[in-house]
Amino acid sequence: MITLALSKGRIFDDILPLLKAAGIEVLDDPEKSRKLILRTNQPDVRVVLVRATDVPTYVQYGGADMGVVGKDTLLESGTQGLYQPLDLQIAKCRISVAVRDGFDYSAAVRQGSRLKVATKYVAIARDFFAAKGVHVDLIKLYGSMELAPLTGLADAIVDLVSTGNTLKANHLVEVERIMDISSRLVVNQAALKLKQAPIRRIIDAMAKAVAA
Ligand code: PRT
Ligand code: MG
Prior knowledge:
The protein has helices spanning 10-21, 55-60, 71-77, 105-111, 122-132, 147-151, 165-169, 189-194, 196-211, and strands at 2-6, 37-39, 45-49, 66-70, 82-87, 93-100, 115-119, 136-140, 156-161, 172-181, 183-188. It has 212 residues and is an alpha/beta fold. The two termini are 28 Å apart. The structure holds phosphoribosyl ATP and magnesium ion.
């Protein structure tokens, strides 16, 4: 049995065509059922639904053989020893610094005053500002980062942006792009050895579909 860990939402929606190209069709619709283990048309392949942030953990400890996870989550998770054979080029976005419209970010950075930065991505933000030599106080949030500069909780946020509509709707502006993000296929190292043939088949088929 091959177990694939996926999160509901955009990653699930975007991975379906690539799975299909690899001959795998998910038989249950996660939006219509409460099942956490989904069958596929392949009797020896199943999907488990977990939180996006839990995907690296499931794969690292062998709760799943493979998984699909955003580079943002992967960098932030600190998980070790995951084989990352493929950039799937799905769920693309960027991770950026944003501030309230009218806040003079470059002046704040120039003056060397400590910047208060709210984010779910503490590790990515810490590395980014350290490399720039900017002193920051990081405030860990679990969601709705956009609210932080509007309420005075923080001067800036580090968050994912795709269309930019969410920033705009909240009178925030993107002032720096930290990196481009897409989702990666991750594989458990032991599974790769023990189930080499079927896992290789899936990786190769998905690689072909990504290139096409
Ligand atoms: O939502 P939940 O708390 O369960 O978990 P999650 O947020 O980790 O999962 P999910 O499904 O929301 O995101 C999974 C992955 O999708 C992320 O880890 C990213 O790699 C990727 N991704 C791609 C995105 C976006 N695009 C994106 N736009 N994740 C989140 N967003 C957010 C963005 O921060 C903004 O708040 O969506 C909102 C809309 O963005 P705009 O710019 O289009 O308005
Ligand atoms: Mg989300």
